[in-house]
Fold each of these.
Amino acid sequence: LRVHIAYQIYDTLHPGEVVGEMTLLDGQPRSASVTANIDSHLLQLKQEPFYRLLEDHPQVAQALLAMLSRRLRARTADLSLTGNALAEQAAMPEISQVPGMATHSAMARDLLLLDKIFMLKDVELFAQSADATLEKLAMLLEEINLAACDELFQQGDAGHSLYIVINGQVRVHIGEQILGYMGQGKVFGEMALLESAPRLATVTAVVPSQLLRLHREPFFELLETVPDLMRNIITILSGRLRQRLELLASPSTGV
């Protein structure tokens, strides 16, 4: 089979190779045409029975999420090497706070369930989920309070949680090299939620800070009972991966 756009050939596929896996996952339009060069015999897997399979076998869904996460990590690293991605600013942004939580003593109070649901709506992985699903997710969130200079985790630590910054600010760094800052509403660690991989950097609180933590194990237990959540996350991850693959395929802009 040849993969092509008009007369420009991008790839040639042989027995055992796969084509169309991104559309299987996210249902987006095909990005290229595929034409048989010679008489060919194929196996087709359609989207709906595929997702039913994932619902019946959660372990397959978990393996797929981990695979997408690894591919996304690798393609993001490729983009940073080619210079075809926007660089993060390491400058310290202004520290902002959630209205009504202006002091550290106020930050220490438990957040209402509704507050957590609204915060989850701003997390890309969960933004498409139904309110009932967000409520279940919100109930899994654990509040973390850090004093200034507290380390949340170190580079090389096993990753198994996602974090949302509610108030304050944390610094992402490798040794003394500052990679960036995370303030109110920022999310980090979502890849560690999906796959077991060492942390790539250390995260330290700049000022007293409050975060929400979502652990991997209860998250995957919830995935088994809410198939739509699993499907939404697969769609979002595959969309991110598709976007990075398109950037890698395009000429570097130097930006």
Amino acid sequence: MKKTNIVLIVGIIILIGIGVYFFIKNSPSAPVVESPVTTDTTTETNKTPEVAIKEPVDTTKTVLGVSVEKHDITAYHYGTGAKELLFVGGIHGGYEWNTVLLAYELMDYLTANPTAIPANLKVTVIPVLNPDGLNKVVGTAGRFAKADVSTSQDTVISGRFNANTVDLSRNFDCDWQPKGQWMTTTVSGGSKAFSEPESIAFKNYIEAHNPTVAVVWYSSAGGVFSSSCNKGVVAPATKVLTDTYATASKYKAYTSYDFYKTTGDMVNWLAKKNIPAISVLLTTHQDTEWDKNLAGIKALLKYYAK
């Protein structure tokens, strides 16, 4: 074969090879086979509706009930221990508005100092048990300042009672009478024990939770008073509670409140339920005496942490 023919054949082979290379390179790629998708055959009407995401529930408070005028009566909880220490303000509403401010001061303290509560304790605060009476005097059933307090003495006195003009601390089932006494004044104890929604709300909470002890703030006399509903016999646990709070706070301790006869008293009813309870009467109607009461509260936290 001639040399020129060999060169020609080699050239043709090279050209064919180049053509095949470009043909393969530029040809369409094979389709990618995807995994089969499962089809949802459920009809739209049979699908389970999506549940709306709710805001977290505030587990630090409980609404006990509502007042005559439909204001919430709320308890606030701090700590998660098994022993519950209960503090109550404002059973006499706006007449004893300083007890409400004291309860709010305690709430603020516990919020700022959560480690003050021992692990085995829970502290519950009911800042105002008579929101209707408070509203008469300060213009709200909730937080207020001293500047909001009415300057009318008649208005302040009227704030002692609920909207049915019942003295709530004469409406409990311990020596209850339809007419009670407040100093030299006759007051309504209600149509029967627990006739008022505020009293029922408190009763239901106590019977559901059975707190270890209870401290109820009043004004004004300046002292710590033991409770009893058994012919004046003070239970040993109540005496310990009285002495612990009184010694730390430097209030004078009393076996009972005997400045005048009281019937249907809430704190004495707690004693009837075998719950150690004390009435702490602030010295005046204006001052919360925070330092004295904080000392008493701290003493209780320490004692019941045992």
Amino acid sequence: KLKQTLATGIPNPLYEATLGNFSRGESTNLTNNLSFYWFISDHLQLQSQFSVTKSDTEDNNFTDPLSTKYSSQDNPFTRGDLSVSSTDNFSWNVNAFLAYNNSIGKNYLNLSLGINAQENQTSSLSSQYRGFPSGALHSPNYAQEIYQKPSTNEGSSRLFSAFGTINYSYQNIYLFDLTGRIDGSSKF
């Protein structure tokens, strides 16, 4: 059997490697993007984009009850701990943009109108357990107690904006620009 500590009193990494300690994580991410272009005429076009993203993550960290981390603890029912956390995220975003470009003689006009809308929803859950009978039995079902109160967070945000620009030039010397934008968000 490997010694738990080296002669210097430092935990033996070879001993720890024989235990059931682990740190595992999983992540899934799905994104879908769709673009649409419509050339209505030579001077007028519509562009739009839509995207959806769904992502999930899960992390599990376990320390075996025989770990040297617990060598100073006398109570065997508090040895071994497991932390579990998960996060779910869903978001979508849409943009629509109408552009008009035309040149008449020495005049050039560029007119643009657009909107943007988006939403993001997030939820997370984390919990910690302790007091496991062995490294092989690391499911929350085998824990002696829930060490810290489980915590959950939920959040949702939305945004809607509209914008417009006008660019006018005469003989490419005299320029006039006007831009406007308005935003509404649940974060304001």
Amino acid sequence: YTSGSTGRPKGVLIQHSNLITLLLGFQEVAVPEIKGSGLAVCPYVFDVSVWELFINLCFGNTLHLLQNDDVFNPTVLTKYFIKHQISTAYIPPTVLSNVADTLEFSEAKVNLKRLLVGVMSIKQATLQRLVDIVPELSIINGYGPSETTICATFYPFWKVLSPDDNTPIGKPVANTSIYILDRGQ
């Protein structure tokens, strides 16, 4: 379903091939992973949940499902990452900074290798904090409406370019194109 920015979420039909393109595109820009553990935190009616489920199941990861209430508790979320050695995840932007705070003061090693972020603008400084805490972390900022199969663009974040600026939205997902139009088109 769409995020409901118009006030009412709407169902979106996509083809299986579009999802495969998205998953392979993510695999191309993120650090490759073999047999890790992935986490699903989004409700199944939210488009990002499709990425969470299939990026893990299609590439051999063990999939963990987290209860919705725990997603917005950074302490619970961080402890889950550590206890279950989660390596692939999506973290909602509203809790990114709080998760970074919790990870910063954690004594335990975090196994997080691949992180999808997006849905709304995220300051580069927030993502840099996560990379500073988990240096081997590959963060991908995804952007796009549900109708484009979750993300239309990916931006691999490696280091901050301008801390106070929003993270760029990146380039089209592999094997796709984007068109930036003005009001006349």
